[in-house]
Design brief:
InterPro entries: Acyl_CoA_acyltransferase, Bact_Acetyltransf, GNAT_dom. This is GNAT superfamily N-acetyltransferase. Keywords: Acyltransferase, Transferase. GO terms for molecular function: acyltransferase activity, transferring groups other than amino-acyl groups. This protein has 320 residues and is of the alpha+beta class. The chain folds into two domains: 112 residues, 3-Layer(aba) Sandwich (Aminopeptidase), CATH 3.40.630.30; 132 residues, Gcn5-related N-acetyltransferase (GNAT) (Aminopeptidase, 3-Layer(aba) Sandwich). 32% of the residues lie in helices and 33% in strands. Strand 8 and strand 9 form a beta hairpin. It is globular, with a radius of gyration of 20 Å. The relative contact order is 0.16.
Length: 320
């Protein structure tokens, strides 16, 4: 029987032991996975964002950390949710350690008064989805995890009637209100997105996220503006973790009335050109796309992205 207890996130030794389990578990099952840096983990738990809190649990035997759980507890409109992740060292699997961590995590959920637990599991390995289903989780959404090698040979190009605006980290003040609107529209229209993923973005939330993200990541944003009206009609974002050789392609979105003009492609090319110009140390780029999003899947193929994993978002509801 393992001893499971919260991790003191300000204890470097304890936090590094926790991170080492996550790293070893992912390397064993998912050799092409994108793994956050230790800096990103430490910053996220030691200086949390303004809209939730995070709890780390560790399972120990004879003083060794052999399994871990991470609980993200958002607030406001998502205050009924717990986002959960569990890892166990490969040599200690199939002995019930993961189930013990799940029970300890579920105690935190009940204590916090939350009714919905969500998690992301990947194939490979198939056992992760089987484990989640055995605990009563159901798959509610899928995304292809895609990756491509850098550099990519695509030159920036103009789209008639539009201009591409670029910025790093902090959104310019004169574009903030329109950018908030784009982010909210993206949340409503994103293929496969569940209602639990939708957050009402505000200027304050954007600024708070920018501040917390900047501790561990550089951010490059491209936005398309219609020249005639001055309206922002689309955007694309890439994150670059400090101390990593990876790039993370995040959202790319174009308003419905402006689709079909290759704006999505132009936005991605613009951000990639900035990465390759200013961050030549990056050797790969990762992105996640709903299998039914045919337009974005076609664009990703043009860049040479290949499918390396299938991610399932799973959920379990507990009411009392």
């Amino acid at each position: 029987m393992s001893v499971i207890a919260p991790v003191d996130v300000h204890d470097d030794t304890a936090l590094k032991a926790w991170y080492a389990v996550e790293a070893a578990s992912m390397a064993f099952d998912r050799p092409y996975a994108s793994h956050r840096t230790f800096e990103a983990l430490a910053n996220s738990v030691r200086t949390p964002h303004d809209h939730g809190r995070r709890v780390l649990l560790a399972a120990k035997e004879q003083g060794e950390t052999i399994g871990i759980a991470e609980l993200d507890l958002p607030e406001e409109e998502r205050s009924h949710i717990v986002e959960l992740g569990i890892h166990v060292l490969p040599v200690h699997r199939w002995r019930g350690v993961g189930t013990e961590l799940w029970r300890a995590a579920d105690d935190v959920r009940r204590t916090s008064g939350r009714t919905l637990t969500t998690a992301e599991v990947t194939i490979p390995p198939k056992s992760s989805l089987a484990f989640a289903r055995a605990l009563g989780f159901k798959s509610v959404r899928r995304e292809d995890h895609l990756a491509a090698d850098l550099p990519l040979r695509h030159k920036p190009f103009n789209v008639l009637g539009y201009e591409i605006l670029m910025w790093e980290d902090r959104t310019p003040e004169d574009l903030l209100a329109q950018f908030v609107g784009l982010r909210n529209q993206m949340g409503k229209e994103m293929p496969g997105k569940s209602e639990n993923d939708v957050v009402a973005h505000t200027a304050d939330r954007i600024r708070s996220a920018e501040k917390s993200t900047a501790r561990s990541y550089d951010r490059i944003t491209a936005a398309a503006r219609e020249i005639l009206t001055g309206e922002l009609v689309g955007y694309s974002v890439i994150f670059l973790a400090h101390g990593s050789v990876e790039a993370i392609q995040d959202d790319t979105f174009v308003k419905t009335a402006h689709r079909g003009n290759k704006l999505g492609l132009a936005l991605k090319v613009a951000t990639l050109a900035a990465v390759q110009r200013d961050h030549p140390e990056r050797t790969s780029i990762h992105t996640w796309t709903d299998p039914s999003n045919d337009v974005m899947q076609r664009i990703n193929k043009q860049f040479g992205f290949r499918k390396i994993e299938l991610m399932h978002e799973v959920q379990r509801t507990d009411r009392w």
